């Protein structure tokens, strides 16, 4: 038997494919996430941010600069990916990365004044997009959807 020959008993029937297509939570959450991200990317384009950049900057908008690990956890992003996403925003002068004064091994993330202005400019675009998307979900189901997604994440 060659590497390309698959025993017949290991081939899944097409009905299984259809079942997964129609019932897989992961597939449908990923599809919805990509569709929502495109809509928010379009909405935020006038201020020069993507939806991911907006979320990242918003995660830094707090009284005390968070550690990279805190932001990584909040955004469900590994530290390497987060660091890669920070670099363009840092180059644009929207945030700074500094050594944690209490733990020299840790880094803290802070919005710059330009970052705060960018976030303030972006927020009304986000708000309008959020409102439009929530209105597509009947009744108070948008709140239920949000609660369900929070439970899964």
From TrEMBL:
SMART domains tied to this protein: HTH_MARR
Any GO molecular function: DNA-binding transcription factor activity
PROSITE patterns the record matches: HTH_MARR_2
Pfam families: MarR (PF01047)
Domain HTH marR-type: 22-153
BP-aspect Gene Ontology terms: response to stress
Designated name of the protein: MarR family transcriptional regulator
Organism: Chelatococcus daeguensis
């Amino acid at each position: 038997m060659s590497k390309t020959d698959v025993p017949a008993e290991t081939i899944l029937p097409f009905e299984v494919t259809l079942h997964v297509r129609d019932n897989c939570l992961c597939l449908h959450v990923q599809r919805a996430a990509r569709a929502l991200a495109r809509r928010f990317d379009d909405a935020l384009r006038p201020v020069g941010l993507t939806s991911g950049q907006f979320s990242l900057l918003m995660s830094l908008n707090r009284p005390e600069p968070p550690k990279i690990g805190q932001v990584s956890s909040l955004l469900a992003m590994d530290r390497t990916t987060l660091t890669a996403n920070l670099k363009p925003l840092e180059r644009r002068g929207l945030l700074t990365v500094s050594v944690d004064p209490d733990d020299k091994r840790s880094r803290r993330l802070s919005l710059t004044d330009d970052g705060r202005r960018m976030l303030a400019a972006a927020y009304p675009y986000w708000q309008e997009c959020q409102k439009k998307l929530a209105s597509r979900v009947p009744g108070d189901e948008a709140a239920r959807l949000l609660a369900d997604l929070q439970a899964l994440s």
